[in-house]
From TrEMBL:
UniProt function note: Potential transporter for phosphate.
GO CC aspect terms: membrane
Name of the protein this chain belongs to: Phosphate transporter
Domain of life where this protein originates: Archaea
Record has Isomerase as a keyword: no
One Pfam family named in its UniProt record: PHO4
Transmembrane stretches, start-end: 44-63, 75-99, 132-154, 193-216, 228-248, 287-305
Biological-process GO terms, alphabetical: phosphate ion transmembrane transport
Amino acid sequence: MSSVLLVAGVVVAMFVAYNIGGSTTGPAFGPAVGADAISKPVAAGLMGVFFFIGAWTLGRNVVTKLGSELVVDTGVFTLEASIAVLFFIGIALLVGNVFGVPASTSMTAVGAIAGLGLAGGVLDFAVMGEIVVWWVVSPIIGFWVSLIIGRYFYARLNEMVAMERSTGPLFDIDRSGLIPIPRVHRTTNRRELGGTFTVVAIGCLMAFSSGTSNIANAVAPLVGSGELAMNPAIIFGGVAVTIGAFTIARRTLETMGSDITELPLTAAIVVASVSSTLVVFLSALGIPASFVIIATMSIVGLGWGRATRPLTAPEVVTGDGGARVTVDALAADEEGEPLPPIGAEDVDDIPSPGALFNPVTTARVVLMQNVVPAIATVGSYLAFRFVPIFGF
């Protein structure tokens, strides 16, 4: 009977990982595919490889944190309980999808496991408090780092990254030998090649950061139960993510998958770099991080920094600049658009609201980012506390 439950648990865990692969490949490689830098199969392959590298290295820390440190008695992680936890993770994420909000799988997984710990009276509140503190602090860090970049460095970055695509392909494939060799096409310029490499490298960084944090969301309950070892769990999860990247991710790659990829190329690179770096840092500490919330606050911070460029620092503080500051200014950037020094721009050139950042939409995203994990937490607690089969 236990072997049947273990197989069922692995199948459910792989299903969660499958959906992770489908939902995260678009945000990671959408810009590269949209720019015809790489094909969808190549994007899926890169997603699988770098997700697995992130999971195999730093991802172990997060699996350990969720699977054995969040609860003081891992005995509560029976096979039945582990399957139930994964079930609540899936249901809560489904609610987020119904409302069109990309829910945080990390926060949802922590919520479901916390519900189990509360019901069994074994939740480690010190570990839970550490995780929650970082959940609050990391988006603030992302906001301020992006704000500083937007205000003081974005113009120069925009000039460096800006590129115009040539009429031909990026590469030609030399098939004259036994092994096909890609060669730079005669119309491809150095700036175009550098920009393409940058956007693909950022996608690989995002895939790596996803692996460091998200692998735990799929396999931590089973590893915590002691029925599945760490290495096989990561392999199963990595395979499922790769399958998801090659199948259901094709649609997210077409639509660019998330709000981040709707930004100008420079902005997308900044937001992805800041967010991914923070996620990797937190994963090294064993903290399951929410990439979506960090990225959302990075978008707001970057736009706010760009929007305040027409004002000097004293004008921003005192409000004497006469300009309505909105983060919509970010969307007005054209690739390669030169910008005057800070405080020298015409405040009348600030775009009207709605071009990029809608406060109502952002509030809905942030709200649902907290509601979805709450659903997982409450549902998990009620089930484990009052359903006799679990014996708590």
